[in-house]
Amino acid sequence: MILIDAQGLKASRPNRPLFADVSLTLNDGDRVGVVGLNGCGKSTLLRIISGELEPDAGVVRLGRGTRIGVLPQLPVLPKGSVRDAVGEGWKGEAALHRLGMSELLDSPTDELSGGQQKRVALAQLLVAEWDALILDEPTNHLDLDAIAYLEEWLANFSGGLILVTHDRHVLDHVTTKVLEIDRGKAYLHVPFGKHAGSGYAAYLSARIEREAQAATDEQVRKNLATKELAWLRRGAPARSTKPKARVDAAKAIVSQRPEAAARQGELGLSLGSQRLGSKGVELDAVSFSWPAPGSSTEGVLVLSPFTHELEPGDRLGIVGPNGAGKSTLLDLIAGRLTPSQGRIEIGRTVKVGYYDQLGRDLNVNQRVRDAVTGDKGAPSVEDNNLMRQFWFDGDAQFAPIHTLSGGERRRLQLLLTLVEQPNVLLLDEPTNDLDLDTLRALEEYLDTWPGIVVVVSHDRVFLDRTVIEVLALDGVGGAALVRGGVAGWLANRGKVQAAPQKSHRIVQQSVEKTAPVAPKKSTKSPSTLRRLIGEAERKMEQATAKQDALTIELATAGNDVPLLTKLSEQLAQTQVSVQQAEEQWISLAAEAESVGLSLE
What we know:
With about 600 residues, the chain is α/β, with parallel strands linked by helices. The protein is built from 19 helices and 18 strands. The strands form four sheets. A six-stranded mixed β-sheet has the order 5-6-7-3-8-9, with helices on both faces. Strands 14-15-16-12-17-18 form a six-stranded mixed β-sheet, with helices on both faces. β17 and β18 (about 480) form a beta hairpin.
């Protein structure tokens, strides 16, 4: 049954076209993810389909009696308590509990933070009856447990779904189709064959093929243009006999240009960083309670005494439920808050860059170029180059900040953070609102960045690709390092600083084989050893998971000889990777043992 039928939609914003001729039909059971670069018009498209905005052209028709639930980027709640907003009854309380809002049931809605308001608005939708849902960035401000709950709920939802999200795990597990907006055009990707079941995989495959085909077409055009140009340049006698149609066609080929790139060049994140000495950030028995020190009100414990050392090259992810104190810990490191007890020592060469959830206090009436130049007046050549590096080119430099999309504002905030050349980066929910291309560029940048990175995020893919160690906060003041990265944390919820069972077996085997030989004392610091062991465990987890997946695929490949051969070769290579990762872990475990560093 058709729920929504949108045909020929066109939209623009002041001095900037967004898209044209976008069509989408939503049926029962369809789960459509909408993707595209920041500022391409994804949220505008959802607002048009939901009836909030009128398109410049085109029409939206709804099936008879279709009930549509909408979650906008910035929801507005009715006045009253959270309980009143969601409705009395067990369903509302259950949804709020799963979304981390159970302790705020009686709080006034106008006293909630933006993230809390969005969770309440999402709970409103989940307890009502709808034929179709339109959700704009529903996973922003949700913790991993709440995201898992939302994924499960959406999997059981029988109606139609249109979803804008940059969470790649959600896209891969929830969507059955992906609508891509690219340079004003729309492409609908429907999975088939090897991509069956994942709209996100179908989108990635089709995008790669489209870009490869565009490159091939451009090369063909260049070859043809070269020939036609040579023909046009022949001597005057020959030219006088050339048919006019052929001349016009030749000129058209020569003058053709490929479609302009969606963005010019790569995202220019490499702005340099100040040299970081041997001492980074040391937290010595740091604890914190709200209200902050100096208040006469009795405090609520956020962080029990916690000791940790951050050294150059460290990549620490902070995870835990909403309200556990993740952002508070970043504020302590940044010096925005003072510990209730303990001390934080900052190295003499440390320069902190803080990319926080709320972003800088941007003046929304300011233009992009004015935010970048500050009090300097007209932008310099360097300023213009910097803005172009961050994809603020041409008219975008003159755009008032209030006209930017959420993702464009976040990219501007990232520019203003990195231009100060920090050597310690604190990233609080950095993936919120950033498009997929920007996320990939940020991940690659952090992979080789020499400083210290501390990340608070609920994006499983981003965490897995950027952090080595994970610090888990339990919401009642406890903090514990979990080995194996985010995969290790998810697999070992509730275990405090326990290495994977497989690692324990490896330790036992290595002790039996090498017991007669005393290990040489390591020259590495305990902090460096912890980081390297965590990285080795993450590699081992990933290699083992790939080995298991290939084993299953090999067992179900049937009699397809070419496929069996290919899978066997991949499995052999993966087994070597597992062995190498295990050997590296054993070596590092021995070094840790030599300096008395416990692995338990």
